[in-house]
Amino acid sequence: MKTCAIVGASGYTGRELLACLPHHPRLRATVVMTARSGQQPEPPAFPGEPTIDALDLARLSTVDGVFLCTPHGAASEIAAAALAVGKKVVDLSADFRLRDPALYQRTYGSAHPAPALLARAVYGLTEHARSAVRNAELVANPGCYPTSILLPLLPLLQQGRLDAHAPIVADSKSGVSGAGKAPSDRVHFGAVHENFLAYGVGDHRHTPEIHQQAGTSRIVFTPHLLPAFRGMLSTIYVTPAAGQSAATLRSCLAEAYAHEPFVRIYAQGQPELRCVQRTNQCHVAVTQSGPLVVLTSAIDNLQKGAAGQALQNMNLMLGLPEGDGLS
Amino acid sequence: MKTCAIVGASGYTGRELLACLPHHPRLRATVVMTARSGQQPEPPAFPGEPTIDALDLARLSTVDGVFLCTPHGAASEIAAAALAVGKKVVDLSADFRLRDPALYQRTYGSAHPAPALLARAVYGLTEHARSAVRNAELVANPGCYPTSILLPLLPLLQQGRLDAHAPIVADSKSGVSGAGKAPSDRVHFGAVHENFLAYGVGDHRHTPEIHQQAGTSRIVFTPHLLPAFRGMLSTIYVTPAAGQSAATLRSCLAEAYAHEPFVRIYAQGQPELRCVQRTNQCHVAVTQSGPLVVLTSAIDNLQKGAAGQALQNMNLMLGLPEGDGLS
Amino acid sequence: MKTCAIVGASGYTGRELLACLPHHPRLRATVVMTARSGQQPEPPAFPGEPTIDALDLARLSTVDGVFLCTPHGAASEIAAAALAVGKKVVDLSADFRLRDPALYQRTYGSAHPAPALLARAVYGLTEHARSAVRNAELVANPGCYPTSILLPLLPLLQQGRLDAHAPIVADSKSGVSGAGKAPSDRVHFGAVHENFLAYGVGDHRHTPEIHQQAGTSRIVFTPHLLPAFRGMLSTIYVTPAAGQSAATLRSCLAEAYAHEPFVRIYAQGQPELRCVQRTNQCHVAVTQSGPLVVLTSAIDNLQKGAAGQALQNMNLMLGLPEGDGLS
Amino acid sequence: MKTCAIVGASGYTGRELLACLPHHPRLRATVVMTARSGQQPEPPAFPGEPTIDALDLARLSTVDGVFLCTPHGAASEIAAAALAVGKKVVDLSADFRLRDPALYQRTYGSAHPAPALLARAVYGLTEHARSAVRNAELVANPGCYPTSILLPLLPLLQQGRLDAHAPIVADSKSGVSGAGKAPSDRVHFGAVHENFLAYGVGDHRHTPEIHQQAGTSRIVFTPHLLPAFRGMLSTIYVTPAAGQSAATLRSCLAEAYAHEPFVRIYAQGQPELRCVQRTNQCHVAVTQSGPLVVLTSAIDNLQKGAAGQALQNMNLMLGLPEGDGLS
To answer: Looking at this predicted complex, what is its ipTM?
Structure first.
């Protein structure tokens, strides 16, 4: 039995990890802490829930792996402390996703807090980085939007199945849990329920991450906020290369993911949020629509888009079966 | 004081009209009937609601204008009866939206029930057909998706502001009321709440209507079903022509709609469903995003997307102020 | 044409008033201000919405009536200022609902800010205080829970139709808008959506108000929070006096409210939130259930439970038709 | 490893069982069938879901236990067939809950389809029938409303802690999944979302079941429909016997359920739906409110109110650990 720490356990991704781990046969959360040292310990949200202790970096030495569910900026220092005592770290924040510290600064508005660590981080889109993750000491867990967009796109881009010049449109819709647990006007029930909107049009922070991983800046990304709690659907419009069609793109993806337990390419029908909620699955349909091909990609933003993929990565880093704890 | 009939008053669009008319200073609903002759009259849904009488074509001769809120296919016969007695007709169904009866048959799966009437119908996207509507005897009220897409696109297409060869992506999201009031697995609370999906990808019935009115088949349209009751947001991705940008496209739209009370072009910010719900407004933002420009367009699918625009058209046809009854 | 000021216009009840007044033929909001002097003016929430000015007590002298949509505690000073210049005041906060300043202190945790004004305030449950409201200078607008409970109960209590010793259970359920617009953990979408709970069991602040107005402390009141935005339903369990039954209680209520446009007693069926949302109506059903009679009472908490009833009262105070501006 | 059949697997309770069983270490669903012989087999609802075969009674002989998730009336015949080949049966329908066939006929409107089996059925409110369930061949799984009401009430009634003459009010609120998966006007998204209502006031079918099990007809029960999918909260108002108070009633319940893993009595705070959703838990708070004591009781209607309790019962009947498969 291996052990892990969850730092920042009171947020949605931390809680999601806490909810997964009791089903894990070989990994136990023995350290459950807040994200910042000033923060008060938190009593159980309701009877039966765990208590969240105050942050204490010394306790990181007692576990095998560390999950960082902290806001961006706060993760770096804790990651450094954990790496210093030889622990495996999966960082769910944005701190290690961008390889270029200058790009980080432009995107997040402050200097990168630990640029020396950037070279040691592996970008953990598991299906596309499995062996690197297995040997990594520090994994940057992908953002939810990038995960939903890169999984269907990467094989097509890598195999030259898409027109090399045409823009790619990624129109994504996310449940509110993606905005985090802190109260605000934006996440007030009265502002979400029976509402819908695009936000960050043209300048969302996940765009540089998507461009970096896709190796192209031709992807035009627009996020939207759904009146739902969990789940994410990206509708992606691609221009097939000459000789390609929905059928050949679908075959390409079906083959690429044929042995992947967490990615499913539909032969027919469209994925819905409810197909993937509370699972680590990514479901993808490929459909011709006039001159373009439409890729619809559904994940649970708290699972494959955050805690689930983090656990998938930690399993690999600790030498455990990749799917443990992931139904 | 003018009078009107609402045929098919028990559906969502019929009820929406019934809810608008008490605020109308010059038009009163004196005939409120079901959509089909076999249908039972309906008692008030709850105390205070109107009774819906059985369909009786003879009563159409007693009013000035007729709203047809019937399923497609059922409207044609009633329209013919109303026209025969010289009444103004606004048809909210799809029966008169496509000019080509062969296209109607391919799209709706049955022969057009009244092809001889097609030439007499005016497509009532009011802001773009005002004088024709004023003189029309029969108006085909536009579909909700086409309305949300054509309003921001038409001025740009007409003025050659867009690349003439690039595809246009129209990614639309609609509240459930667009699917109508008939119970089904698809509209069960358990299938909509906390869910989201694309449907009709590549073959939705509104696509031919959009192509016909835009004068181009380069528009790739994908509808989605929101876990909300009313409202529609279309996110439209266009490639500007040489020399054009978000700023020039925004100016073009701002000028085109400068004097339109029901269309608002944002100088900044993004429209949300709650900006337009229960209004006849269309709100549009124009934002650069990499090589493309993103048009976000919000309407209430039951108002500007159906009953509101129908009332706007009927007002014109009856010589009443266009905004009467529309807050 | 009369004029009014709305103080605290950015909250839900202030906005509801702002949404009603354009439909009012004889009253216009000419002063629209924030609730506290320190507060910044607020730009329109989205294009088309009004700007909210900073609080300026001097402007109260320019209007005929003043609506106070402020938090409790903040209303008293503004009320005093408005009364001093001879203006009619409807206070939607709790400041003048309890006649006894000691009870106010026990309930709200601080000394009453203006006890001298208490004697001048009329409790404005309109249907039961019409002539007093007409002559009032200061009206304490009832709380939403008390309104939904007192309307069905008062005629039964006043006519001795209920057992004089048995407890009365008032089990109430409210939409989230009742909790106000300020962000908090409690009103986060993630805490409301797909959730439900009782709160304030045994000690909610509306209990003393209900007891005072009903003239009895036998009413056991429990509020609950619905995963909905607007609307309130109270399920009230009463023990009929000897010789009384559901039928006689229903007749009593039907007669008491026979000429009231805003109260409807059902002959059959049950009221639902959607019967009363966006109206100033209170709908009531009376049903036998074993030894008890169940009164179900539905209102819109923002209308009859707040802004609607406030407007009803202001209309009376200004000598306008009571229903003006209330559809 | 034991095996079971799920009959009626396409409904909400059948699907809930299907979702639980993969987590069960000792029980596997080897037969998954529709509820009625005429019914078509159902393909997977979406990729990864199980296929549901057509009903075939002969296959019941191949398993150890049979879950009946059929509509009332349809269960009896299948139960008889399963009992005839010596199988353990848990019936989630209402067929065996009422001991008196005449009462069944009055309540469900048709003669009981298998009165001879009634004497063999054990009412499976597990915590109160554990040893009988262990030896039963046929268990009538309790209704969701009765479960949420009886768990907090039974110890109080059995120990004489309540006034023997005062009525008990049980005001219950249920998510929509309780109404089943069949489409209807009542469960249309447009009729549930942003709505709330009482139904079956004075005559709901669960009332006789509650009265029978509580041994008293003093319980006045009112169900309500929440705009939520899963979860149930009952607010129960009791009159303590002389010398009793909220504190003593709470102690009584805490002691009665001290060793029960699926019932939790709160020392403070109020249960919310989200505390129990997707668990087999019943959470109960006990609070003084004037002369009455308020019991708030939360369960997941699909788990402890249906499939979870059914699995708890089946585990006992098959000699497996009671909590297997129930997180």
So the answer is: 0.97
